Amino acid sequence: MHLIIAEKNISANRIAQILAGNEKVRAVKEGGVSTYSFDTKTVVGLKGHVVEVDFEPGYTNWRSKVHTPRTLIDAGTVKKPTEKKIVNLIQKLAKKADLVTIATDYDTEGELIGKEAYELVRAVNPSVRINRARFSAITPAEIRSAFESPTDLDFALAAAGEARQMVDLMWGASLTRFISLAARRGGRNILSVGRVQSPTLAMIVNREREIENFVPQTYWMLSLMTEKDEQPMEARHTAGRFTDHEAALAAEAGTKEPLVVTDVKEGQKNDRAPAPFDTTTFIVAASRLGLSAANAMRLAEDLYMNGYISYPRTDNTVYPKSLNLNGILETLRGGVFDADVAWVRQHRRPVPTRGKKESTDHPPIHPTGAATREALGQDRWKVYELIVRRFLATLSPDATWATVRCTFDASGEPYAATGSRLLSAGWRRVYPYSEAKEKILPVLTAGERLPIRSVNLEEKQTQPPPRYSQSRLIQVMEEHGLGTKSTRHEVIGKLISRRYVEGNPLRPTLVGRAVTDALDNHAATITEPEMTRTLEEHMQLIKQRERSREDVVTESRGMLHRVFDKLEAHEEEIGEEIMEQTAEEHTVGPCPVCGHDLRIRHIGISQFIGCTGYPECRFNISLPGSTWGRAIRLDETCEEHGLSHVRLIRKGSRPWTIGCPLCSHIESNIEALRMMPSMTDDLMQRLHAHHIYTVSEIAGMQPPDLSGVIGVDTGEAGQLIREAGDALEVLRRRSELKKFIRKVIPPRRGRSHAKITRNLLEQGIGDIRALSQADPAVLKKAGIGDAGATELLEAARGLCNERALREAGVPAVSLKKYQAGGVASPDDLCYLPIPYLSSKTGINPETVHKHVDLVCSHLGRPTPAKITKAVLERGRKELLAIPGIGEATVQRLYLAGIYDTATLREADPEKVSSITGIAEARLHDYIGHLK
Ligand SMILES: [Zn+2]
Ligand SMILES: [Zn+2]
After folding, report:
1. Contact 519, 508 (CB under 8 A)
2. Cβ atoms within 10 A of the Cβ of 532, count?
3. Which residues pair with 42 in a beta bridge?
């Protein structure tokens, strides 16, 4: 069997279809993994890496005294499977294989993934032949030729990938731990540090600092408006920017008619067709279409996997000789691009354009298959069309422009105007992504005199450098040797998801700045591109077999140890610097009561906004628990309260924007305040003016204090406080009801507990007691099904009974025994005879009497007479002595209050029969025996 291992499932499927030709491919799932078989071949897809490198066991405890962050530098590593099902299947198939072909992507990462597969195969089959198929596009031609002439795995290339993996792991893990511990951050708030990530973040932070420190300079631009044949035209003073206001004013004053044309120079300009796409130029072009770097790459990979374009991770901007350009044009014929292809064929430039970078692994990104908008969907089509049009442009002639530059003299002040006209559109015909802006000047001749319609002096200011857009940042990363074509967009994605940067263009958050500053101050190696660039160079040397992986990793270890020497010496300072700078990220604004800062606090899963003036100031605003999302501060502020807006964010769900926390706090408490019968609008306003927003605040006050605050007499204040207490109690019961319902009927799709509770409230059911007495029909109306209604009623009754018994004073231990004996309600205790209760529960009759007495007096009912254990025992023996009466009958007689011969004698057989179910005739017999 010939086993073929592809990088992903989708490429496995395509490779199988291509290699099978006319033969049918059998797609079978084995152990949850798809396989594609034909002939004697089976193709299986990985999921990229199916194993991961991690530290040996023993390093998981961050706070370990033995395994400090620094020890991670020299810690041993192990490879662990991350995709067990795939690993198992590969090994199962490898045992049966007589040939294995690795067909992963052709680059460092792909080679490393291939080597991982190689090791999995070797572990179970040490002798099988393993070769490697290399291709840059998943197209029939490329795939067939790759499989016709397979090569060997390039262990040097894979080793370069491994070296990077190792170095990234030890730098990232050790520094992340160190910095997080120093700043006392854990859980979801850890501060991640990374080999490529940190210098990239530093570039964004430095740019922000440049912008902040930028001092704008004022300058002046002078222009005039003239016209010829009623066509207006603008000319600019040749001095350009005037930095001296006096000089600008003098030039303005000196600009007078006659305006004489001094020179007209005509020329031609070549507008070169663009070079083929590498990853970076592709990302830049895609960003103009509104696609983020990560999105553009995701779409491009998808197109590659499905055979529409070549491998999108490439540094090459020169088409290799072997690339069949005519073949590609042929592929694109007949579809949407038919007219463009025909035009390009007719006007084809002799040699395609080429960029500055040339490498041999992959060709520049180009189309490899025809597609339709319908088949691809909007976004994928956008990317595909861009790549097709770019390809066509690289084969098209340059565009040419006619240019003209006119100079003027306005009584001694020199002016100039330039114009341009497109002579031939060339490549612009097929690549309409950048607009060709023409500027047509009227026909002028030297010596001609023109009128001056106006003279304009404009005051302007120099602008700070712009923030980086994602695509610009990727270009700059490339210039600095940070990351690779495959990783740059991922690094930016990480900075965003770790909340180090935000917005587009990108700007650093407070945390991003704090971490960068701390590292900059104490171990600049981490934030400077130097170290990372060195590693990239070393990786190149590994690929060329000039250095070994071990050698490079060891050198990096040494570098990291030196970094730790500095960090450990300043651990406390680093922690304090970060904590001090990031305190602000939680500060929402001034406390309305005392003016200290209000800050978002997280304690376990609960979160709230508290005053830093605590405990003197107790003002606080509650927030929904962090299961709804973690509260963060936004940039917008409330005009009324001067507080930053707050949002709850949770991975994988839409953020919940609360807005101004105080506005929201006030809003959500108004309903409760209105529950107080004496509440008026005026009163509410006065309370708000004194920062009293909730019923619980009022309920917790003393009448003199409240009266002092809102100017009512203490009697009224007392009344308000009582009403607030009542409202609080109603709310407490409501929330208890809500929790109770949630507990009894579990949440389900389409059944909202909030809605059920609201409906019940409308039906006047506001607490568990009301629920226990509710009509089942009402519950159904509230949106609870039949089964749910019954269950809910029973549970509510049970809970109410239990509470009533407990309130009456029945101890918890006995309560359990009553419940176990089927005695659930206070009524049961009041009305069931004591002998019955005692025998059912095993509780001493005297104790039962004590409980019955408690419950009856609680309910205002008469207590039945006491019965002692001795009396009960004697009675039982008397009854058992009567022929025909056994234990079971005694128990039943207890239910009718009969517990000895005396009570039996006095009983009314008809009544006893109806209670106990014992036939009347038999009862007559028993009584007869006694006579
Ligand atoms: Zn305060
Ligand atoms: Zn507000």
Report:
1. no
2. 25
3. 3, 37
290 CB neighbour count, 10 Å cutoff: 10
Question: Is the pTM value of this prediction over 0.70?
Answer: no
* C-alpha 610 – ligand 1 centre gap (Å): 8
Tokens (6 digits) for 224? 């005039």
Query: Helix, strand or coil for residue 419?
Result: strand
Span from the CA of 611 to the centroid of ligand 2 (angstroms): 16
* CA pair distance 133, 144, nearest whole angstrom: 10
- Beta carbons within 10 angstroms of residue 17's beta carbon: 20
* Cα 658 to Cα 798: distance, rounded to the nearest angstrom: 39
Q: Which helix (H) or strand (E) holds 502?
A: strand 501-502
**What share of residues in the chain are helix, strand, coil (percent, to 5)?**
50, 15, 35
Strands (E), 215-292: 218-228, 231-242, 259-271
Is 311 noted as a catalytic residue in this protein? yes
Torsion sign across C-alpha atoms 546, 551, 556, 561: negative
Instruction: Read off the DSSP letter of residue 291.
Output: -
Q: Is 305 exposed, middle or buried (0-12, 13-18, 19+ CB in 10 A)?
A: buried
Find tokens 């009163």 and name the residue: 683
What SS3 string covers 32-75?
A: CEEEEEECCEEEEECCCCCEEEEECCCCCCCCCCCCCHHHHHCC
| Amino acid making up residue 888 | A
Q: What angle do helix axes 279-288 and 378-394 make, rounded to 10 degrees?
A: 120
Instruction: Kindly give the distance from the C-alpha atom of residue 615 to the centroid of ligand 1, in angstroms, as a whole number.
Output: 9
Contact between residue 354 and residue 275 where contact means Cβ atoms under 8 Å apart: yes
Question: Which position has the token pair 């005026």?
Answer: 682
* Ligand located closest to 664 CA: 2
- Average pLDDT, integer, range 423-451: 91
235 CA to middle of ligand 2, Å?
Answer: 52
- What SS3 state is found at 277? strand
Please list the alpha-helical segments (H only) found in 583-713: 661-674, 681-689, 695-699, 703-710
Closest of 195, 162, 202, 53 to residue 534, by C-alpha: 195
Residues composing the chain = 931
Closest by CA position to 611, among listed 632, 596, 623 = 596
- Is the pLDDT assigned to residue 546 strictly greater than 70? yes
- Across 644-676, b (16+ Cβ under 10 Å) vs e yields bbbbbeeeeeeeeebebbbbbbbeebeebbeeb
> Hey, what amino acid is at 683?
L
From the CA of 662, the nearest ligand is: 2
| DSSP H helices in 50-148 | 84-96, 108-124, 140-148
Tell how strand 597-603 and strand 606-611 pair up.
antiparallel
Q: Is 400 helix (H, G, I), strand (E, B) or coil?
A: strand
CA–CA distances in Å: residue 667 to residues 348, 632, 639, 660, 679:
69, 20, 16, 11, 16
Residue 434: pLDDT band with limits 50, 70, 90: confident
Place of tokens 């101890």: 811
State the chain's mean pLDDT as an integer: 90
CA dist., res. 854 & res. 810, Å (int): 7
Segment of 72-86, 383-397, 667-681, 914-928 carrying the highest mean pLDDT: 383-397
Burial status of residue 743 (CB atoms within 10 A of its CB: 0-12, 13-18, 19 or more): exposed
Judge whether 185 and 521 are in contact, CB under 8 Å.
no
Catalytic residue among 308, 311, 415, 500: 311
